[in-house]
Write the structure tokens for this entry.
Amino acid sequence: MGSESDRPKGPRCIALVGPFASGKTSLLEAILARTGAINRQGTAAEGNRVGDASPEARAHQMSVEVNIAETEYLGDRMTFFDCPGSIEFAFEAEAILAAVDLAVVVAEADPKKIPALQLILKGLEDRRIPRLLFLNKIDRESGPVRDILKALQPASRVPLLLRHIPTRKDGIVTGFIDLALERAFVYREHAESEVVEMTSEDKAREVEARYAMLETLADYDDSLMEQLLEDAEPSREQVFRDLTGDIRAGLICPVLIGSADHGYGIRRLMKAIRHDSGGIAETRKRLGIAANGETLVQVMKTLNAPHGGKLSVVRVLAGKVADGSELIGPEGPAGRVSGVFRINGQHVSKRDAAQEGEAAGLGKLDRAPTGTTLGAGKTAPKQILTLAIPDPVLAFAVAAAERKDDAKLSSALARATEEDPSLRLTQNAETAELVLEGQGEMHLRVALERLSGRHGIAVSTRNAAVPYRETIRGSTTVRGRHKKQSGGHGQFGDVVIEIKPLPRGAGFEFTDRITGGVVPKQYITSVENGVVEYLKRGPLGFEVVDVGVCLTDGSYHTVDSSDMAFKTAAQIAMREGMPQCTPVLLEPILHVEIAVPSEATARANAIVSQRRGQLMGFDARPDWPGWDVVEALIPQAEIRDLIVELRSATAGVGTFRTRFDHLAELTGRIADDVIARAAQKAA
Ligand SMILES: Nc1nc2c(ncn2[C@@H]2O[C@H](COP(=O)(O)OP(=O)(O)O)[C@@H](O)[C@H]2O)c(=O)[nH]1
Ligand SMILES: [Mg+2]
């Protein structure tokens, strides 16, 4: 068959991606079993697969991080990266995809998962990553694959090209026909399928399906087009050459069929991977790297093993990396490699130097965050690409259950954000909260579980505080006098101030209309300082904004007046005057853009209304066929678990982003509750 000579040799890195529960981790297991890396194929039900063996993955019965395992197939080392399907862990995949040769998209014929498939394919298309689609769970399908493909096609910008069709007996899938090889196979459970004669009925189906495949290939190959028009039979070599070329160029996405659980179609998939992935040279081309003999590696993932310390999982893009190598990142030295490791699921073992094209774990690099490009020379390498870190969509205020763990918690969380930059940690000075933000409930939950699992820190969580403000609706003029005559030096300050509301967004403004020096210049500043201090906590218990204060009159004493005395006088005036000005609570309103598949747009609109939101309209999402963007103004207090509801309304794909828009007055019962809670907290 075909072009064995131009087939690239050497190590490959392959990503397994696809919607949630499409069978990626099972496929990894099947590949490892069929290529002899493991003796027996484990199952999801038994919980004995190489992937998903971490305590967190076991607890949730889903992949919560990338599973890495390698095997050898016909002399080539292949490392697989089984990326979690949930959008919450998408950043894990982002860092991996940057450095792989090919992505195998595992999909199933479930219409509910098509938006998720589109999301994943779009990510690959945008990054120009060659891809194959493995239509899994074929054992469950009874309808024609052509119909399945028709349903899946809108998820792909390029043609899905059917490479295999199933053969059936009594409605049950028993094998497949490879349309490029023109050969029929019967599946054998967890074993190599057997070549069989095609029945005449199957032959007829094969001819029809093959013609459809060739027609698509001919769209990118004029000579093939001519042959088809002349009814000439193209050579098998030409067909394979076209397939390989079109896949590498990202012009098509071929569809292979099989079943991970049964071990069907695995060898065909491995052959396709071996032929159609271009290897490290092609990947360098995609990344725009000129190989000049210098070592270059890309950090795909950072692992923090409980006792083994930090491990940077890298792909060697050029050159090689040995134990003891000094590596340098774009921002300076990254550290000295302390051990080169092979990673197979939870199992990590020492190995020799990592060669060009291989993936390996590098021990104890201090400064090599996920996504960084590292070199081994004296000069800093150029960062090959910047990963887009998604904006967080959910936040929790976190605290150590026991005070003594506070410092341990912050440092462990800081490490967690290095391991996974799609987590964000901020210390909110205003609310004195440690806020952990991330991509969803499961994402944050798993991050916190790791903390307790690895570091033994129990963590409590609650909703992060909303930064309410308060202002006033009315004005007043008040006098504040501070006078003390308790022996010796006295204290004297006396001010008259006007307090009035300012337009929304104006902030705070201090002026004076003092004439004739009734309040000496240096004390005017003290008055302002006194007012500013007061405004940190107004009559309702919140920071006061949009207020103007004017010092209009006052008096002083040559001996007893001081900075302190005028400051105190100003505060006395504010304390008396502010409650007279009809204080009102202000809540932050965010501008929100919700992106959902169009069939969920009405649902998204309803969610906005339920959250006291104001719809601004919706429009087609640019560059996202079949999606809409809903724009709305929503109070920050109502955002909280918006992502959870949105995802459940969209089979997991809906998302949103926010920015602060304005502060709005909040009155009535909701406001009363907020004020009562603040008072309770202060007490
Ligand atoms: N019927 C059938 N079920 C499968 C097949 N492959 C995987 N599954 C099941 O699909 C579920 C999800 O599989 P898993 O590999 O964990 O999915 P992932 O989320 O994509 O990693 C598990 O219960 C598997 O046993 C298959 O080929 N046929
Ligand atoms: Mg999985």
Summary: The chain has 17 helices and 33 strands. The chain has five domains: 12-285, 288-375, 394-463, 470-581, 587-682. The pocket of guanosine-5'-diphosphate (ligand 1) is lined by residues 18, 20-26, 44, 63, 85, 106, 136-137, 139-140, 259-262 (CB under 6 Å).
